[in-house]
Amino acid sequence: MPQAAWVVAMADRRVVAANAAAAALLGRSAQALQGDAADALLSSPEDRLWWDSEGSIGLLHTDTVVATAAGARYVSRSLSLIDVPPGEPAHALVVVADRSAEHRAESEREAALAELQATLEATADGILVTDPQGRLSACNRRFAEIWGLPRELLQHEDDAAVHAWMARSVGDPTGYQLRLNALRETPQASSSDRLELLTGQVVERVSRPLLVRGRAQGRVWSFRDLTASVEAEARIEQLSRNDTLTGLPNRSALVDHVNEATATARREGRSYAFLLVDLDRFRQINDSLGHEVGDQVLQTVAHRIQACLRADDVLARLGGDQFAVLVNPADAAAAEATAKRILNVVAHPCSVEGAPFTLTCSIGIAMAPSQGSRIDDLVRHAEAAMRTVKSAGRAHYRMHQARAEGDRRNDMQLDHAMRQALVSGRFRLHYQPQVSLADGRVVGAEALLRWRDPEMGDVSPAHFIPVAEDSGFIVHIGEWVLAQAVRQAALWHQRGHALPIAVNVSALQFKQPHFVDRVGSVLDISGLPPHLLELELTESILVHDADESLHRLHALARLGVKMSIDDFGTGYSSLSYLKRFPIGKLKIDRSFIKGLPGDDSDAGIVRAVLQMARALGMKCIAEGVETEPQRHFLQEEGCDEFQGWLYAPALDSLSFEQRLVHGPAAPAAAGAAVPAPAPARRIRLVR
Question: Locate the PAS domain: which residues (predicted)?
């Protein structure tokens, strides 16, 4: 027999014979098995019942577990009595078939099925499996939830009713059925599409063939509810194109509107206007009333502007307190009319928490497509016009002027050239002597910046200094001038010329947090005695944030540095400031010297400045002195020093040092001979 088998004597229930298959199954020889108790080999309740009944219950055939030398084995066994002649001893036959491999395979299949079922139920997708005829083979609960299938419909296993329910649930039943038919005709094809259900759900449907040995045996469908993600995408799209505070289109959406307006304008040969609206002094509202109130004000302004526009005009918020208006179509007159309406509605009184206030706005206008067809160009041009309105007093509008745009482009080029000049060493310093009116001695020098560009030639400080101040590059230039001037003064000092050097300081440079430390560091590195450095400051530096200025001036005074006020009388002169600050000298601006001595107004101003300086214990120096009568007048009125072409223009360091050593001396009294001024133009550092 191929199965394991052994014979048991019923009298004592012991094995009397066993075959080789039994020996292999149990791991013992056939001889060794003889004499073993039958219930020791198989000892299940069914076995014991059968042996106790002495086989009277008939054939026993069940599955059980048998212990072997290799461990427990899952087997199918049968117990039956052996037919023997009457009077012969009764025997039973035990036949055992090893099913361990089959049991293991069944267990693995059950585990795989359980895992698959758990996976199907755990997934967020609805899963449906059909056979080649479209009958339902399996599905999960999520499938029923997505399609809203009644439970009883699934319990009845009515496939046609399920398919009919699904066809009735879609918004396009005809297209739905056409796609099903196409898949039936191509059973090995895959597909993916979106369905819109009558409930408003958006469902992604994916279908893959179920292949067995390369042949389609059905189809697997997955259904994913995309409703939430579609709504989220729509919301994200809305947020990406609309301002969250006002709900207006943002810059991204405005780009599309501009592109569309440009295409229409070119196709129909017309123009449109781009208005940039900037609220005046809006920061004061945020600072005084808070950002929450500021947001309310921005919403109010948006509603007001929107209400005064035409239906086809577009209002967008670019950010902060800036709005953009697309007036399409429009000529210059229509653009100005719209700007006037906006100015009017924005200026209506506002009230927040019982506090009334009035807003104004400044508007820059660019006409398109003549002045640009891209959003960047239109914003740039309109912003330039708006800045002009701001500088002229705000609360008005202005059309973009191409010439002003060209000036700004030139400024950008000049700014770049300046930065290259500083790196390339094209800047240089000249020094203009400062002369005592009492005895004609050179008592100091002012360091003046010069720049020769390879392409532009000599560039006047009056041209490039304002550009440097506007871009902030004046800080780097100022630091270079300070370091070079102090180094030169230290060299002169080492050669026996203890000559004070005057250096102009811009307002922006003075405001730098580490300005005082920078001055101290430059003095330490050069070894120049601090009293030989004089910083020339403008009046605007002193008036703006007077307390902070006073703190820095005293810090500089503690270093031992001298300080003077440059171009005195042209700014915001105030005795209350002058008497507080550690200022040692006033420089009378050249504009008041030019008319001396014949101009009574200039003469009166100069006398007043000299008297004020004496009252405050300060010295006075006059700049721009070009004639002997001017020098004589200043000497008679008690001015301490002068500088100008009457004595010498600004000189390079070598020429200046030669002038120190060899003369000429300035005249000390009226009528003395003086050198004639050179015909070359005057150049000095202008702020």
Answer: 112-152
**Does residue 680 have a pLDDT over 70?**
no
The predicted structure's pLDDT at residue 683: 31
Q: How far apart are CA 65 and CA 42, in angstroms?
A: 8
Annotated domain spans of the chain: 4-104, 123-229, 246-400, 427-662
How many other β-carbons are positioned within 10 Å of the β-carbon of residue 269? 6
Structure tokens at 214: 């390369």
The structure tokens listed for 549 are: 């200025």
- At 271, the pLDDT band (50, 70, 90 cuts) reads very high
Which residues 6+ apart lie within 8 Å of 619 measured at CB? Answer: 584, 585, 586, 613, 640, 641
Distance separating alpha carbons of residues 530 and 556, to the nearest angstrom: 10
Q: Which residue has the higher pLDDT, 330 or 576?
A: 330
Cα gap 644→65, rounded to integer Å: 122
Q: Which two tokens stand for residue 270?
A: 């017309």
Residue 183 to residue 209: CA distance in whole angstroms: 9
The CATH number of 246-400, from 3.40.50.10860, 2.30.38.10, 3.40.50.300, 3.30.70.270, is: 3.30.70.270
For the chain, give percent helix, strand, coil, nearest 5.
45, 25, 30
Are domains 4-104 and 123-229 of this chain identical in fold? yes
E-strand ranges in 301-393 read 314-319, 322-327, 350-352, 355-357, 361-368
Pairing relation of β-strands 322-327 and 350-352?
Answer: unpaired
Distances in whole angstroms, Cα of residue 463 to Cα of each of 154, 265, 418, 679, 686: 88, 41, 11, 21, 9
Residue 131 to residue 210: CA distance in whole angstroms: 9
- With a CB cutoff of 8 Å and minimum separation 6, the contacts of 168 are none
Q: What is the mean pLDDT of the chain?
A: 87
Cα distances (Å, whole numbers) of residue 687 to 100, 215, 408, 504, 561: 101, 88, 19, 9, 21
What kind of fold does domain 4-104 have according to CATH? Beta-Lactamase (3.30.450)
Q: How far is CA 482 from the centre of its chain?
A: 37
Q: What is the CATH topology of the domain spanning 123-229?
A: Beta-Lactamase (3.30.450)
pLDDT at 49 over 70: yes
- From the number of C-beta atoms within 10 Å of its C-beta (0-12, 13-18, 19+), residue 434 rates as buried
Please tell me the pTM assigned to this model. Answer: 0.49
Checking DSSP bridges between strand 397-399 and strand 361-368, what pairing results, if any? parallel
CATH classification code of 427-662:
3.20.20.450
- What does the angle CA 604 – CA 605 – CA 609 come to, to the nearest 5 degrees? 120
Distance between the two ends of the chain, CA-based, in angstroms?
118
